Amino acid sequence: MISGSLYASLAGFLGAAASLSAKLSLGADYVIEMCETGLREWTDFHDSPAVCEWVHYPLRLLCVGLLFMCNVIMWTFFSKALQKCSSSATATVTTTASNFIFSGIFGKLIFAETHAALWWAGICLTLSGLLLLHGTTHPTLSQEEHKKNN
Q: Which positions carry the signal peptide feature in this UniProt record (predicted)?
């Protein structure tokens, strides 16, 4: 049985993957550059600019498809996280934190982005809040006590 936190983390990962797909589908320069780099490194094909000028269209359409697929699966996992977590705040903060972390990882790996100290401070504060949410226990009333109070 999968816990709510795992569903929320997967939802955050898929949200970051959807953002990555959107950035790749709307930015032709990224896709063309990746195509040219890939052809140069993995093959002996020297006419990569001519090929990549038309290949980037199907690649961008593939990214649009991935965008929609990742969003659908992300919302499914987020809904399951809301059902399984003790509070909606826990599911929301966990999804948001994992989305930030995976967005940072994707940005570094694919776009060679660098993150300022303020970005890392924000991530640390988000993760601290997440630990506080997960660390607190919520007292639950038994059914008899709940009936007495109503």
A: 1-22
Tokens of 42: 């993995």
CA nearest neighbour of 52 among 82, 31, 83, 81: 31
Whole-prediction pTM: 0.75
- Rounded Cα gap, residues 50 and 76, in angstroms: 41
Helix, strand, coil abundance in the chain, percent, nearest 5: 85, 0, 15
**Digitized pLDDT (tens) for each residue of the chain, 150 residues in all:** 578 989 999 999 999 999 999 988 887 677 777 777 777 776 666 655 677 777 778 888 998 999 999 999 999 999 999 999 888 888 888 898 899 889 989 988 988 888 888 988 888 887 887 778 766 655 555 555 555 665
Which residue, among 9, 11, 19, has the nearest Cα to 111 in the 3D structure?
19
